[in-house]
Specification:
Blueprint (H helix, E strand, L loop, with lengths): L9 H9 L8 H13 L6 H13 L3 H9 L7 H13 L3 H13 L6 H13 L3 H13 L6 H13 L3 H10 L5 H13 L3 H13 L6 H13 L13 H14 L3 H13 L6 H14 L2 H13 L6 H14 L2 H9 L6 H13 L3 H13 L6 H14 L2 H13 L6 H13 L3 H9 L6 H13 L3 H13 L6 H14 L2 H13 L7 H13 L3 H9 L7 H13 L3 H14 L4 H13 L3 H13 L8 E6 L2 E6 L8 H18 L8
Antiparallel strand pairs: 1-2
Helix pairs in contact: 1-3, 3-4, 3-5, 4-5, 5-6, 5-7, 6-7, 7-8, 7-9, 8-9, 9-10, 9-11, 10-11, 11-12, 11-13, 12-13, 13-14, 14-15, 14-16, 15-16, 16-17, 16-18, 17-18, 18-19, 18-20, 19-20, 20-21, 20-22, 21-22, 22-23, 22-24, 24-25, 24-26, 25-26, 26-27, 26-28, 27-28, 28-29, 28-30, 29-30, ...
The structure holds 2-acetamido-2-deoxy-beta-D-glucopyranose (3 copies).
Length: 664
């Protein structure tokens, strides 16, 4: 707007102020806007002034908020007072909040119900019962005695001040009690240790045919466990399954899976019959815990109670088995389903991919179409993940084609998956094309593209992209730095790597993880800066792990530094004394330095320990046939063919490059 010279008005400014401190705009921007408002003579508008006060309060800049508030010419509006009373209360400055309440009263401000409820909440939190009673008087004097909102706040205030009888008094004065009032009273009893009274109120609630909600159930459970009365709930009615369900799914949403399962067991014990929504939540709790034992118990329950035909229940069973690594069980559930939905197909596709069978995911994808379903963005993202992991470019292009032809909604996950797929398949050009035409880009998008350039040896482009990312306002994370460091490593850019490593800590406050350290050791070691690499390892604030010492050992081997290599090997063998391949690196170092005695000693000690050198292994899949190759092994039935082809290739290559490159 400013660039186009469109003048913002009070309304646009107050909207902007309202979104400061939401993660996009911060207090800095808030202050800048305040400056703009002062410079452009907007001040004096009560609406805007309130927005400024509110902005400072939510940014935690209470002194600024007070200054602006204090200078207001006209303080007759209750809104700005409410903002002040509420802001100070929220930051835990209850005394200030109550003082503001008194000031407002002296200025004869016309209060609203929120003014009382905020002040009462400050009284409750600071357990200031006498101030609370004053507010109670004000409530009556100003005619709010029949406002249920204010009365519930009064009740809660008395309960927090441990005046349960006063809370009760309020409760019985309210004639038309909504669920909130019942809940407030039950929780007042629970929090004051009066479990029986809580249950009594709950009984009254049932007599009055008030349906319970999630809060009610939670409080009742606290009180029944308080008095060890687990079967109290057996008087519950059918509809309580909704309340139970909302508690269980609430726990799942907050990753409290144990609690969710505990609730489910209590529900079962109380004879409340679950519905399919509850079953989906419970199964997802088992996947969250990756606990296949509980999961298969629940599966048994599902079959006994006839839920196995429910598509959502079956899909979550597949997800559960898949996350726990029980592919067979997942397949059994899948093939046992007479009617499948897109959700089930998607679950199965991601199940194969997650369990190391990406080819199966790829094969399943066309079947979705054959069954008459339209793949959605979830199907596409999963199958692209599978395709990336085996670098199957043609399949990837086919899926990309589906995506375009079927006009499937292309969300940011799909586009990220496409970028990743093209990068993994070596098609940087396509990845870049999608990247450039994509809006908005998220952190994953930038990280993938940076990693893409890095792994294709285009370190400078990766760095340039990093700058672009920063100027587009996206904050890098530890993955970004790992991509950058590894791209410096691939290109051997030592200084750039060191600078990045520094700025990661000092400028961005990101603590390096082991992978970052390994990258740095690799970068220094490969370039032959062995002493520097060792110094770096010694200065690490965490215990170096095997990969650090292994990297140092390999670097020493490449640069023939026996002394440091032995030291690295000692540390490595201390961590992993029985891994044969660790000895082999040291053995090779001795061999290459022609230290035959040492090599012979080491070989002997390996033999004593019963350690073997495992051969390197590689395989290739051609036309559904897998050929495995082991180093030093010539047992493949097609050895002759293979070597003939290799030799021919070798000859042709030497011809092509005019002997400029020696082919080994
Ligand atoms: C409000 O006014 C009364 C009487 O005028 C005075 O005693 C009291 O100190 C004032 N309270 C505040 C917070 O200013
Ligand atoms: C560093 O680069 C080399 C050469 O490209 C690579 O083999 C090695 O795995 C890289 N190290 C790390 C930690 O990425
Ligand atoms: C090498 O080149 C010859 C002649 O151009 C050709 O017949 C042969 O197939 C090539 N070898 C391979 C392995 O491509």
């Amino acid at each position: 707007m400013q660039r186009l010279d469109v003048k913002p008005d009070e309304y646009s400014l107050s909207i902007l102020l309202g979104v400061c401190d939401n993660g996009i705009l911060g207090c800095k921007e808030g202050k800048q806007m305040h400056g703009y408002i002062l410079r452009n003579m907007f001040n004096g508008d009560p609406f805007l002034d309130t927005a400024i006060v509110d902005m400072y309060l939510s940014c935690g800049q209470l002194a600024y908020a007070w200054c602006v508030f204090d200078k207001l010419g006209d303080k007759s509006s209750v809104v700005v007072w409410n903002v002040m009373i509420g802001g100070f209360c929220e930051k835990g400055l209850w005394e200030c909040s109550l003082e503001l309440y008194s000031l407002a009263k002296n200025e004869s401000v016309k209060f609203l119900s929120t003014s009382f409820s905020t002040a009462l909440s400050a009284c409750g939190s600071s357990e200031d019962a006498s101030f609370g009673m004053q507010v109670h008087c004000d409530v009556i004097k100003m005619g709010f005695q029949s406002n249920p909102y204010v009365y519930t706040s009064l009740l809660t205030m008395y309960a927090k001040c441990k005046l349960v009888e006063d809370a009760e008094g309020i409760f019985y004065q309210i004639l038309d009690k909504e669920i909130e009032v019942w809940n407030a009273m039950i929780s007042a009893y629970v929090n004051n240790g009066c479990a029986y009274d809580a249950l009594e109120i709950y009984n009254q609630m049932r007599v009055n045919a008030i349906p319970s909600d999630a809060f009610t159930i939670l409080n009742i459970f606290s009180s029944t466990s308080m008095i060890g009365l687990h079967d109290f709930g057996s008087t519950m009615e059918e509809r309580d399954v909704i309340a139970f369900g909302s508690v269980i799914s609430g726990f799942c949403r907050n990753s409290k899976f144990e609690e969710a399962l505990g609730f489910f067991r209590a529900m079962e014990a109380d004879g409340v019959k679950p519905d399919s929504d509850v079953m989906v939540s419970v199964i997802s709790a088992c996947s969250g815990l990756e606990n296949v034992d509980s999961g298969s118990q629940i599966h048994g329950f599902v079959i006994k109670n006839g839920f196995q035909l429910d598509l959502f229940v079956a899909s979550s069973l597949i997800d559960m088995y898949s996350k726990c690594g029980f592919l067979d069980s997942a397949e059994k559930v899948f093939s046992g389903m007479q009617h499948k939905s897109l959700v089930t197909w998607n679950s199965m596709i991601s199940c194969y991919c997650r369990n190391g069978l990406p080819e199966h995911s790829i094969k399943l994808f066309p079947q979705i179409l054959q069954q008459g379903f339209h793949p959605d963005s979830v199907s596409i993202t999963s199958v692209l993940g599978a395709i990336s992991s085996v670098a199957a470019l043609i399949q990837g292009k086919i899926v990309h084609g589906y995506l375009t032809r079927l006009e499937i909604r292309c969300d940011i996950q799909v586009e990220n998956a496409l970028i990743d797929m093209y990068i993994k398949c070596g098609f940087l050009k396509y990845a870049r094309y999608i990247f450039q035409n994509m809006f908005p880009k998220d952190l994953v998008t930038w990280n993938s593209m940076i990693a893409g350039y890095g792994s294709h040896g285009e370190c400078l482009k990766a760095m340039r992209l990093f700058d672009e990312m920063k100027s587009s306002g996206i904050r890098p994370d530890d993955v970004t730095f790992l991509c950058l460091l590894s791209s410096c490593n691939h290109s051997g850019l030592i200084e750039a790597g060191q600078n990045l490593f520094q700025s990661m800590k000092t400028e961005y406050g990101i603590e390096p993880k082991m992978e970052h350290y390994v990258s740095m050791v690799d970068l220094l070691g490969r370039a032959g800066h062995l002493d520097e690499a060792y110094e770096f390892v010694r200065s690490m604030p965490v215990e170096p792990d095997r990969s650090i010492w292994l990297s140092l050992l390999c670097a020493c081997r490449a640069h023939r530094n026996v002394e440091l290599g032995e030291l690295a090997a000692q540390n490595l063998l201390k961590l992993e004394p029985s891994t044969g391949s660790n000895y082999v690196h040291l053995l090779n170092l001795y061999g290459e330095a022609e230290l035959w005695d040492k090599a012979a000693d080491l070989r002997a000690s390996m033999k004593d320990k019963g350690l073997k050198k495992y051969p390197g292994c590689s395989w290739i899949e051609v036309k559904n046939r897998v050929d495995v190759f082991l180093s030093g092994d010539s047992s493949s039935p097609r050895t002759t063919d293979i070597y003939e082809t290799l030799n021919s290739l070798r000859r042709n290559m030497s011809k092509k490059v005019d002997n400029h490159v020696s082919v080994d």
